[in-house]
Amino acid sequence: MSPGPAPRATSALLYLDGVSKSFDGFRAINGLSFIVEPGELHAVIGPNGAGKTTMMDIVTGKTKPDEGTVLWDGRVDLAQIDEAGSARLGIGRKFQKPTVFETHSVEDNLLLALNADRGVFATLFATLSAAQATRIDDLLALVRLEDRRHTLAGGLSHGQKQWLEIGMLLAQDPKLLLVDEPAAGMTDDETMRTAQLLRDIAGDHAVVVVEHDMAFVQALDCCVTVLHQGTVLADGSLAHVSAVPAVIDVYLGR
Amino acid sequence: MTRLHRLIILAVLCLGITSTASTAAVADEISLREIAAGFVDANFSGVSETAQALAETGDPAAAVILQALREGRLHWMKSDEALLIADRDGREMRLFDLFSEEPAGTARRRDLSKVTVNNAIRNQVDGLIGGLTLLSPDPEARRSAVTAVFERRDPAFLETLDQAIEQEEDARLRALMEEARAAILLADDGAPLEARLAAVATIEARGGQDALSTLAAALSEDAPPALVDAAAEARAAVEARLKMWGYAQNVWQGLSLGSVLLLAAIGLAITFGVMGVINMAHGELVMLGAYTTFFVQEIIRTSAPGLFEWSLLIALPLAFLVSGGVGVLIERGVVRWLYGRPLETLLATWGISLILQQTVRTIFGPNNREVGNPDWMSGAMHLGELTITYNRLWIIVFALAVFALLLLVLRHTPIGLQMRAVTQNRAMAADMGVRTGWVDAMTFGLGAGVAGLAGVALSQIDNVSPNLGQSYIVDSFMVVVFGGAGNLWGALAGAFTLGIANKFLEPVAGAVLAKILVLVFIILFIQKRPRGLFAVRGRAVEA
Amino acid sequence: MSLRALDRRSWVFLGLLFIIVVAVPLANLATAPGSWAHLPSFAVSLFGKYLCYALLAVALDLVWGYCGILSLGHGAFFALGGYAMGMHLMREIGPRGVYGDPVLPDFMVFLNWDHLPWFWHGFDMFWFALAMTMIVPGVLAFVFGWLAFRSRVTGVYLSIITQALTYALMLAFFRNEMGFGGNNGLTDFKDVLGFDLQSDATRAGLFVLSGLALALGFILCRVIVTSKAGKVLVAVRDAESRTRFLGYRVESYKLFVFTVSAMLAGLAGALYTPQVGIINPSEFSPANSIEIVIMVALGGRGTLVGAALGAIVVGAANTLLTGWFPDFWLFVLGGLFVAVTLFMPRGILGVFDRGGPVRPGAPAGLALRRKEA
């Protein structure tokens, strides 16, 4: 896994070039190129079937691209890596449908996500250090679940599960966060708070957000990439892409 | 066969057909009597020589004497050493004339002496009679005659054989006769080399295990080297051909096994493939089908024996209804509460399989039940070196018919359309007015009913016992897993691939080891393609 | 560490187990035959057999209850352990067999074999055989698991190929050529480590050992499931994909727990053989393995204690019913499968458990989505 002293091909944290992927003849991703710089906050929008989820699958090693280059940190070929490997490189992913470990307590969910040795024997003999305990306390406070610490995650409300999953993502301390529709099922207030949180995180971490909610994207106030039929239709500020006629045709105009 | 022989010989005599035989040396009765006198008080070799001499006359009348000798009816009077045919009748013997077979009075047993024969002589005489009946007007008699001659390989028959070949109008019989002639020539060191080389070619063309043994056994030690070489080449050629037939036989048996697997698995392909439900009681539904067949035959046996030939056709719809009905009950009673929990479904249906097994055991007893084969399911036909039994043939036909029928039902009927709709999107199907619960029950019932049909077929080749289903459950799951769930074509390909693979491994590894190897192969295969040969791919599936 | 792993229920379980392990041999050895308190010797071996099943059920619960791997082939690991011990017991018969061959077991003499197959060497040593009772199932589980988990065979598919595994082994062990006594298996044992297997004291000793093995196996499983690794296992069970995205190598965890479980199953089999007096290929039959599953399900999966409890209840019911109404047992067993899955998905102990959320259907790790299957 260790990349070694190979020369960096690019300064970008994540570099996709000419990536394609088909499923039974359907081209989910078609010659996609996409770059994320370290610490950058980036939003991806696009209609259903535009290839957003497939792109995330490729970045996290869940799906192997048919062709194209996927480079991490300018050095590591992500096409050769599985999900666990991508997580260990520092890519965290939050799913559209909140997935937390329902029969574990909120605290244990965060514990499992904490950045620590993931080997079988390491976890078999692992004990909770004081620093880790503090980190869990901090995260609980951040996602406002202190009083639910011992509740089983399956008993949380939808919005609380979203927050718990964001907390787990932060516990991983990744270099890149892939966040799929974080605002789904949240109240307006929670949505704004989530946008604020993601803005705060950016800088230390690169963040890629996939979202439908335009108000949320506006609140993020960042560079936006519009996907359509597996390729990039436009990118730039939200104001810029909103003015591109093609974008209006396929997406915003409807 | 011997009775047939005798009748034919009589027919030959009465019709005087042999008078058309132009060149055959027809000895008169007196000379035949002189030769036959050699039987009197002869030891085995004397009897053998006399029989040979009689046959060489080529006189059909000699066949009657030989037949009597063969059947132990040939006797001679101790007083005047006259040969007679005699049958035992109580304490007396009824006598018949050797040639006319007219009754010739009676005699006391102790006045007669029997010409005794041993097995070697019986075999010899069979061949001799064969030689003498080569000219019979009955093609069946000629056929058995030529077979006997072929096995005897006695040069004495050559002349008769040549004559028979000349007269023969049936091309296949003539070919057989030419082969027999070749076999004789091959063994005859007195024959010219060219004729013998031609004979090798003829036998090679005949092929088969017989040709192989003929080529191997016929040559004596002083056969010329050219002939030995030719024979060796011919054997190699025949062996190569036999090997091909061996493969063909493997393929055939593989298809046969594959059709059985297909029948057992195809219902499973519906419940597991289409519905995603693991039905461990599937084997027991097959068993119910087999017991339905048994039950139908019992009723027919006691009340309408004339219908026996139709018993399977009567059993088919009943088995479908019985197994299908039980299937619907299982679905409505148990399985429907467990949708989305395949492992629990697996356990619950296993429990049902135990209950069904024990129910049948309680009602019908634990032993095998006899299910009869109608005439059209018995017997076999030959195709070159292949032996094709009718029951296996019909089961292949039946399996393919069931497969085709299911494809039609799924593709072209309203219930098939609804099944596919519910499979693909349950919620939307429900919104559009499809009664999903009803469709579930029907789908499960269809799979179960097909299991019942399989049971009718399997009752023809397997023991019908409460354990019938158990012996198929692992195999049929392997077929579905190997072929790829959710696809009837996968089940078809899986069943025939596994069947043929099994039969090709069997000669090499033995039956049990072959089965183990196939299982290990599937276990390894599923690592490479976890969703089988005909897997549905795509993002939705990989999720 | 191990003390922290034991909650109150564990202590109750271990306490009860201790009482049984002391009381049963006492009732057999320290009382006169005919007295009201006397326990006949066959009952000691019978109870010992239940304890072996309990250990097997605990081992299965570790993989199924905590990691969501429904193995329908755990009977194979059990039987392999049993065979390994049986091989030692056969060697220990020595020249006292029917044919009096000092080295070859009777069945080999009967088959006209003139030397010991290579894999029978070393089994004359007890410690080697004991190690093999766990190493052989462990290695098989490791190789099988490595292949299966790496290629992400899960859910029903995994269950079916584990069933095929034990089925294939059953067919193999039925063959005389395999060198394990074919159909008849291994039997006619005389003694173990010099102790006569027919004597009451040896039976009592084996019973105590079975209890001890169950206790140690239980504690080991508790240690595993209460560690952070145990939390990962449950995470794998409930949301396998999510666990991967957190950076855990799911296949390593499954492989670890599957192998440990197989080794415990092998140990259970090793204790089973001398108490039952025979080991034959029918132990590999798929029906045996699936019966273990119902024991776990009945007691309550994911509880360990429940698995042991279920094994003892089902084992005892089997003995009693097949004794009283032989035709009735399969109805009861079959009904148990249906009733437990329909009405008691969390088993006997689950009925007493409160505080957890009612599982939505089933843990996500167990459920293949219908569309997918």
In helices, the fraction of residues of chain A equals: 25-40%
What is the number of domains of chain B? Answer: 2
Which segments of chain A are poorly predicted (pLDDT under 50) over 5 or more consecutive residues?
Answer: 1-5
- Distance between the ends of chain B: 72 Å
| Biggest protein-protein contact in the assembly | B-C, 56 and 52 residues
| Contiguous helical run count of chain B | 22
Main sheet strand line-up of chain B = 4-3-2-1-5
Strand percent estimate of chain B:
5-15%
> For the largest beta sheet of chain A, what order do the strands appear in spatially?
6-7-8-3-9-10
What overall form of chain B do the CA principal axes indicate?
elongated
CATH class bucket of the domain at 14-102 and 173-252 in chain A: Alpha Beta
Biggest beta-sheet profile of chain B: 5 strands, antiparallel
Radius of gyration of chain B, in Å, reads 33 Å
* Average pLDDT, all residues of chain B: 81
Low-confidence stretches of chain B: 11-27, 537-543
Let me know the number of strands of chain A: 10
Average pLDDT of chain A works out at 85
Written description of the protein model:
The complex is a heterotrimer of chains A (254), B (543) and C (373). Chain A has 254 residues and is an alpha/beta fold. In chain A, 36% of the residues lie in helices and 24% in strands. Chain A has helices at 52-59, 83-89, 106-113, 120-124, 130-142, 158-172, 188-201, 214-220, 238-243, 245-252, and strands spanning 14-23, 26-36, 41-45, 67-72, 76-77, 91-94, 176-180, 206-210, 223-228, 231-236. With 543 residues, chain B is of the alpha+beta class. Chain B is built from 22 helices and seven strands. Chain B has helices at residues 2-15, 29-36, 44-56, 60-70, 119-132, 139-152, 158-167, 171-187, 193-206, 208-218, 225-274, 282-303, 311-333, 342-364, 390-412, 414-424, 426-431, 436-458, 470-483, 488-509, 511-528, 539-542; strands at residues 74-77, 83-89, 92-96, 103-108, 112-114, 380-383, 386-389. In chain B, helix 4 (60-70) packs antiparallel against helix 5, helix 10 packs antiparallel against helix 11 and helix 12 (282-303) packs parallel to helix 14. Chain C has 373 residues and is an all-alpha fold. Chain C has one domain (8-352): ABC transporter involved in vitamin B12 uptake, BtuC (Orthogonal Bundle). Chain C has helices at residues 8-29, 41-67, 74-93, 106-110, 126-150, 155-174, 200-226, 228-238, 240-245, 250-276, 286-299, 305-324, 329-343, 347-352; strands spanning 186-187, 191-192, 195-196, 278-279. Chain C has a two-stranded antiparallel sheet with strand order 1-4. Chain C has a two-stranded antiparallel sheet with strand order 2-3. In chain C, a hairpin with a 2-residue loop joins strand 2 and strand 3 (195-196). At the A-C interface, helix 2, helix 3 and helix 4 of A face helix 8, helix 9 and helix 10 of C.
